[in-house]
Design brief:
single chain, 584 residues, alpha/beta, ABC transporter transmembrane region fold, Rossmann fold, 2 domains, six-stranded mixed beta sheet, 10 strands, 65% helix
């Protein structure tokens, strides 16, 4: 019953993989045709060798002319068979690679469609491992494995036919005993299934840890934590080694066991064949041909044992791939209207939200922001400041209440049009591996060089960009190590200034910039903020003292609200925050 359930779980997975391979089925058919022709040609090689041997053994005089023809046929057969085998493997590789390409494209599309909470709650290295290694395991294990399985079955059937034409009793002995190796290998690989699943999960863990450590190597070195991280990595790696060792142990049993059975069978057939040959029933050449077929017959069983092991890995990897692909998307909003001519008015009405249902965060939040107002959000870490930004941008959907932008409920408009209303600069500046010019025009690809330079000047970025070796054509390295943290932020601010959105979100936008640069940036921000609704999240209160409204948050609620002077006059929670930074 357990085996039946296991098969039931594998077949739907195979069906899903085939759906991705279907557009490339022509390469599968070509591979099958060339493969079958190669198998057919290989079936004649033992016959030719047997005839060649009979020309030499058991005759009074060697017929060199006949032997020469057979040797020529053998050479032609070898070259032709090798050519067809090459085409077989070539088309099979195209099928595997194109299917893998399709699956990776689909997975990458998927991570751009799933809710942000999925990405936040999943180790990024684990997702990367799924897209790269797991898909490789799936396509190689299922597609190459299935093709090898099909070729193995055809080889077995062909060999049976040829063996029966030589000697029926010996053929029956081989047919009955050889499948024992397959039964043993299936039993062993069934035992190793759980270990392969564990191994795949451990690979995901080690990929995630490596990605995390490499991305923060400077912090690790700054805290002299190299040895600690080496120890942690070695612990995970040791766990991977143990699971891989156990899985490999069981998988490696299949080969020796099948070879032992096949070797024993080969010896029995050779001895029996010798007795039959002595009686004169068959020639020495036919014995040689028959023994070659015995090898051809048992080899697919060894391959099938290996294929079953590969399929076990493929099933474990496929489960991870399809768990990602079948993750629920963000709610489709294509039928909703767009926000047109956003007026910059924002209302939050009795908004409640929490990342975890068991832990409340924002409760009954009300806020009314007029066009052109600058709203600053301050408070201790974890009070919900950045969460409000996530809700305004609809990175997360509220649990209850309503958020209205430009007189539109944001849950009843397209996310694209909503996010076009905002320009956002985050605390963690993001630049990708491209030129500075390409990074600046990320939100407006058709911008002219004049617009780029103007936006850069407003962000006080033009001067340092001009001093770089290639100016605006300077390539930002993969981790943006060739520009400083402040310069990265200036480029990000220039990117926003280029798009000139109706509303701005600055989430700790100047936290990575020195005081002098901050003053320059503040002047630039004051310019671009004119007439625009702005939301500023800040720890450094010096950056928000000119805000129209300051929301003071604590434990998910607005505890105070007013201008800088009004809040200081209240001598409340805001005053405590202010004094903690600047003293009384």
């Amino acid at each position: 019953m357990q085996q039946k359930n296991s098969l039931k779980s594998i077949f739907p997975t195979i069906k899903k993989v085939i759906a991705y391979a279907k557009p490339h089925k022509m390469y599968f058919y070509l591979s099958v045709v060339f493969g079958f022709i190669a198998i057919g040609l290989n079936m004649f090689l033992p016959v030719l060798l047997g005839w060649a041997i009979d020309c030499v053994v058991g005759v009074d005089a060697v017929n060199f002319a006949k032997l020469g023809r057979y040797l020529i046929f053998i050479a032609i057969q070898a070259i032709t068979s090798a050519s067809f085998e090459w085409f077989d493997v070539y088309f099979q590789n195209i099928l595997v690679n194109r299917t893998a390409q399709s699956m990776r494209n689909k997975c990458f599309e998927k991570i751009n469609k799933v809710p942000l909470k999925y990405i936040d709650n999943k180790p990024h290295g684990d997702i990367m491992n799924t897209i790269i290694n797991d898909i490789e395991n799936v396509t190689t294990g299922f597609l190459s494995g299935f093709k090898a399985l099909l070729s193995g079955v055809v080889t077995i059937v062909s060999v049976i036919i040829f063996m029966l034409t030589i000697n029926i009793p010996m053929a029956l002995v081989v047919i009955i005993l050889a499948p024992l190796s397959l039964l043993i290998s299936v039993y062993i690989t069934k035992k190793s299934k759980k270990l392969y699943n564990e191994q795949v999960n451990k690979i995901g863990q080690i990929s995630s840890y490596s990605e995390e450590m490499l991305g923060n190597i400077k912090v690790i070195k700054a805290f002299n934590s190299e040895q600690k991280n080496i120890d942690n990595f070695q612990e995970i790696n040791k766990s991977l080694y143990k699971s891989a060792e156990k899985a490999s142990f069981y998988a490696s049993l299949a080969g020796p066991c099948t070879r032992f059975i096949n070797g024993t069978l080969y010896g029995i057939v050779a001895v029996c064949g010798a007795f039959v040959c002595i009686r004169g029933s068959i020639s020495i050449g036919q014995i040689s041909t028959f023994l070659s077929y015995v090898e051809n017959y048992t080899s697919p069983f060894n391959e099938i044992a290996s294929i079953v092991a590969d399929i076990q890995v493929a099933v474990a990897s496929a489960n991870r791939v399809f768990n990602l692909l079948e993750e629920e998307n963000e709610i489709n909003d294509e039928s909703y209207p767009n926000i047109v001519n956003c007026n910059g008015e924002v209302k939050l009405q009795q908004v409640c939200f929490s990342y975890n249902p068991q832990s409340k965060l924002i409760e009954d939040l009300n806020l009314n922001v007029k066009k052109g107002q600058t709203v600053a959000i301050v408070g201790p870490t974890g009070c919900g400041k950045s969460t409000i930004i996530n809700l305004l941008m609809r990175f997360y959907d509220i649990n209850s209440g309503k958020i209205v932008v430009s007189n539109r409920d944001i849950q009843k408009v397209t996310r694209k049009s909503l996010r076009n209303c905002y320009g956002m600069v985050l605390q963690e500046s993001w630049l990708y591996n491209a030129t500075i010019r390409e990074n600046i025009v990320y939100g407006k690809p058709d911008a002219s060089i004049e617009e780029i330079i103007e936006a850069s000047k407003l962000a006080n970025a033009h001067t340092f960009i001009e001093k770089l070796p290639d100016g605006y054509d300077t390539i930002i390295t993969e981790n943006a190590d060739n520009v400083s943290a402040g310069q990265k932020q200036l480029i990000c601010i220039a990117r926003i200034m280029l798009t000139k959105p109706p509303m701005l979100i600055l989430d700790e936008a100047t936290s990575n910039i020195d005081t002098r640069t901050e003053m320059n940036i503040q002047r630039a921000l004051d310019y671009i903020m004119q007439g625009r609704t702005c939301f500023i999240v800040a720890h450094r209160l010096s950056t928000i003292i000119n805000a129209d409204t300051i929301l003071v948050m604590n434990k998910g609620k607005i505890v105070e609200q007013g201008t800088h002077k009004q809040l200081l006059a209240k001598n409340g929670f805001y005053t405590q925050l202010f004094n903690s930074q600047f003293g009384s």
